[in-house]
Design brief:
The protein has helices spanning 13-20, 24-30, 38-46, 63-73, 84-90, 128-140, 158-163, 178-187, 225-230, 248-267; strands at residues 2-3, 33-36, 51-56, 78-81, 99-103, 118-123, 145-149, 173-176, 191-195, 201-202, 212-217, 233-236. With 272 residues, it is α/β, with parallel strands linked by helices. The protein has 2 domains: 2-103, Ribosomal protein L30/S12 (60s Ribosomal Protein L30, Chain: A, 2-Layer Sandwich); 118-267, SPOUT methyltransferase, trefoil knot domain (Alpha/beta knot, 3-Layer(aba) Sandwich), CATH 3.40.1280.10. The strands form 2 sheets. It has a 7-stranded parallel sheet with strand order 8-7-6-11-9-12-10, sandwiched between helices. The longest helix has 20 residues, at 248-267.
């Protein structure tokens, strides 16, 4: 770590740059992501993400940030000490833990899928909280990859990184257009399972073992008709109250863990 001049003025050019990088267009133009928080930075490091300049404020360090800092000190990167006022200005959080770094956007390769590969396709999810929560659930369920489809989706949004608790780095997450995603899934002979409220088949009655791609759309628009038509199975989550659907991150977690349950039973030789 190469310690640079400390920053204490809100008018500093680096502070203004970090504030501008809250905008997606600015991040895309500069080719960087902002990663804030000890947990998120730790998972980025574990995934081999290349960090650039680190901004830090020891006064704000949490126990987790303090524990991670020695590993950051061993990196050959620039590091900028910041005053509390400056760090709270550039932070995206109400209670920051004193660590924020610029990083090169990751471009993970999609894995060669096995015969029981489980993939999640997230179509047109623009709300950072929902996208991040689904990435976290996908990581917890042990999926092989996540395909994120749609121009409105911003994987590098700091709120996505935070909501995923860094899970965006701990699994292959690829941003593709519709034709690329469908082409890859078809080339590898995935069974497409469309999660859609109008389906008659409850998700727990659907066969979710084998090479499966679970397809979820946005809460507002749902899955496009083209994806429903391409799917071999359509499943729903039965609703018994007045609400006609669940939050997409909750719905995705339910179907993901049902797929994981069925796979665990199959490995044990039990028919799901």
């Amino acid at each position: 770590m190469f310690i640079q001049e400390a920053v204490s003025s809100l008018q500093n050019a680096q502070v203004k740059r970090l504030v501008r990088l809250r905008n997606r267009s600015e991040r895309q133009q500069q080719g960087v992501w902002l990663i804030e928080g000890a947990r998120e930075l730790g998972r980025a490091l574990g995934a081999g993400v290349r960090l650039g300049t680190l901004h830090y404020c020891p006064e704000l360090f949490s126990d987790e940030a303090r524990a991670l800092f020695p590993a950051l000190e061993r990196l050959e990167i620039g590091a900028v000490p910041c005053s509390r006022e400056v760090f709270e200005k550039v932070s995206h959080r109400e209670n920051p833990d004193g660590l924020l770094a610029l990083a090169q956007p990751p471009h993970p390769a999609l894995p060669l899928p096995g015969t029981d590969a489980l993939i999640v396709v997230l179509m047109g999810l623009e709300k950072p909280g929902n996208l991040g929560a689904l990435l976290r659930s996908a990581d917890g369920a042990g999926v092989d990859a996540v395909l994120v489809v749609g121009e409105g989706t911003d994987l590098g949004n700091p709120s996505v990184i935070r909501a995923s608790q860094g899970s965006v780095f701990s699994q292959p997450v690829a941003a593709l257009d519709e034709q690329e995603a469908l082409g890859w899934l078809r080339a590898h002979r995935f069974t497409l399972v469309a999660c859609t409220p109008e389906a008659a088949l409850p998700y727990w009655d659907a066969p979710l073992t084998g090479r499966i791609a679970l397809c979820l759309g946005s809460e507002h628009d749902g899955l496009p008709e083209s994806w429903k038509a391409a799917a071999e199975l359509r499943v729903s989550i039965p609703m018994r109250g007045q609400a006609d659907s669940l939050n997409v991150s909750v719905a995705g977690a339910l179907v993901l863990y049902e797929a994981r349950r069925q796979r665990s039973l199959a490995l044990a030789g039990v028919t799901p």
